[in-house]
Please model this.
Amino acid sequence: MIGPMRDEMLDSVHKSLNTGRRLDLSGVLYGMPHGPSGLDPTLPADAAPKSYYYFLAGFVREMGCRRILELGTHMGGSARALDRGFSEPFRGDELIVTIDPGRLAVPILSSHPRIRMIHGLGEREDAVQEALRLFGNKPIDLLFLDSLHEFDTALQQFALYTTLFSPKYVLLDDIALNPEMRRFWAVLCQRYGPFAMNLSEISDQIQGPDPGFGFVYLPGPATAPARASGRQDEPRP
Ligand SMILES: C[S@@+](CC[C@H](N)C(=O)[O-])C[C@H]1O[C@@H](n2cnc3c(N)ncnc32)[C@H](O)[C@@H]1O
Model:
């Protein structure tokens, strides 16, 4: 079972890359750059969309994601890239909820029809409760984790949001950005084995090796072939 599921993951990565390249991300920019000690308006801002934005949009389109939760909004670039992945005509149930303690994205996202912002720390009760409310306490398709790049926060947010929102897929930026993120990613690799992939090792068109970009596949009871067929002896993510 592991081989075919891993092949499926790889196939979905390649298809997402191809699809993403064809999507229109004009105007979807990162905004104010981050320097070594935080936001730095003196650094030059990107003039083009980030390469991982194309992958995010392609992934949403290829995997048919409609319910997406993001931790780490910054200026709404990745949230808008995810939104460009939705197929038109819209079905009306597409929703992206993005959480950040900062308010830099307010002028950019506040009137967006499919993106809702939550202001606060993702691991806090008020943010979790508001996100549960916005998703009607139902599972989501995709969790995109790109917030504080520290071990405790990253692990806490991963554990909280995978438990409470049961995403099928988790994408994670910056898994090799620093020693704490590398330790965090090592824990996920230890737990999920072949179902945790560093996509920087598969393609150089998503993110460079440092910072890296992770993909964890978490099929739930409704989607896991082993459990859906009633076979309990198969290894599962
Ligand atoms: C790397 S930026 C996000 C970039 C954005 N995802 C993109 O690709 O365009 C990280 C963001 O995480 C936010 N952040 C920091 N601590 C957080 C926390 N505990 N919960 C949620 N977001 C947090 C920061 O304010 C910052 O905007």
